[in-house]
Amino acid sequence: MDELKNKANLAVCGVFLLLVFGLTIASMVSPVKAFSESENRYLAKKPKFSFESLFDGDYTADYETFITDQFVGRDTWIGIKTAMERAMLKQDINGVYFGKDGYLIEKHDEADIDPEIAERNAERLAQFMQDCVEAFGEGRAHAMIVPTASEILEDKLPPFATGYDQETYIEQIGALLPEQCLVDVTQVLKNHSSEYIFYRTDHHWTATGAYYAYQEWAKACGFLPLSNEDFTVQVAADDFLGTIYSKVNTKVDPDEILLYQTGLPYSVIYNMDGKVKDTLYDREKLETKDKYAVYLGGNNALVQIDTEVDNGRKLLIVKDSYAHCFAPFAVNHFEQTYMVDFRYFNMPVSQFIEQYGITDVLVLYNAPNFAADTNTLLFTK
Q1: pLDDT exceeds 50 at position 16
Q2: What is the layout of strands, in order, in the sheet containing 276-277?
Q3: Which of 101, 138, 211, 326 has the most CB atoms in a 10 Å sphere around its CB?
Q4: H or E element: which one contains 215?
């Protein structure tokens, strides 16, 4: 009996070791992936070895991240880990809250935000807004720092959920900005929190959420906002599984992608490549994992949009990806709109404003992204 038990234990150990070493070897010999389509992010590169990085611990930490990112069958293992932790009734897994009504809500911890960087970004934005007010006059420069789902959909969060206080940070920014430059959409989003204003599986707001914010911004600019009746709303996809889903890889209902269309003519140029598109929506992206990129082609350094509006006004949107589904509303009030993303764009913004004859500016980010952004030095150049 003991002999049989020992053989069984040896078999279990053998299978375990085979699994561990087999998967490790498979991960090492598999081609290194630069980008994860399911997570919509660039993966860690293999770190360069040096004795200095080895002894200070950087090399081993970076190599561990590299192995984790490149682990074979990563998405499957994420799903298995999620299932095990859900079985233990965990409501917070891999930075994701499992909320009510099937919502997966990205968690933003206080520890994720460096307070010095957050304060510095607020101060740089305030100086930039002041410069724009002096250059363009009042009512031509605005900032919209948007709270994310974890701040707005509080009723869907699990009990005792905590996170970064985005509302307070937005108020702090507002206190630094010139009068009436901040378009605070916190309350209007809360007023519509029972509607489909944030995706259940992705970290972005929906086009509907962006539309409510657009109405507030248009009023601040002195425009009459376009009404719902001015748009034809189309469900372009009903199988969207976003970036938050990829963090947990669990069974959920997919999201819908809505397109608000006016029927007006547009000319769109990406990154000054000279190729003119006639639509604000890149429908080819609907065939990819990142369906949110249907809005103006996703992340680009520079996008130019021309309309048939004849008022001499040119808008510059300095932004993160929250602006992608917002811009199709805003462009209808300007002859030209330019969108720049500091993650990929390195021209000093003051130089761009002068070179392209900008008359209006909007800075649009979600609050955690803006607080953590390390590229805001371009505001000061």
Answers
A1: no
A2: 141-146, 360-366, 314-319, 336-340, 302-306, 267-270, 276-277
A3: 326
A4: helix 207-221
Token pair, residue 17, equals: 């070791």
Is residue 241 within 8 Å of residue 201, measured between CB atoms? yes
Show me where the domains of the chain are located.
Answer: 2-104, 112-379
Cα separation, 378 vs 381, in Å, equals 5
Mean pLDDT throughout 317-342? 98
Burial 331-341 (b: 16+ CB within 10 A, else e): bbbbbbbbbbb
Q: How far is CA 226 from the centre of its chain?
A: 25
Contact yes or no for 206/2 (Cβ under 8 A)? no
pLDDT in tens, 180-227: 999 999 999 999 999 999 999 999 999 999 999 999 999 999 999 999
Coil, strand or helix at 362: strand
Higher pLDDT, 225 or 20: 225
Q: 213-219: which pairs have CB atoms within 8 A and are 24 or more residues apart?
A: 213/144, 213/146, 213/183, 213/185, 213/188, 213/189, 213/326, 214/326, 214/329, 214/330, 215/188, 216/183, 216/185, 216/188, 217/142, 217/144, 217/183, 217/185, 217/330, 217/362, 218/329, 218/330, 218/333
Question: Which amino acid belongs to residue 215?
Answer: Q
In sequence order, the 6+-apart residues with CB closer than 8 A to the CB of 200 are 101, 102, 103, 104, 252, 253, 255
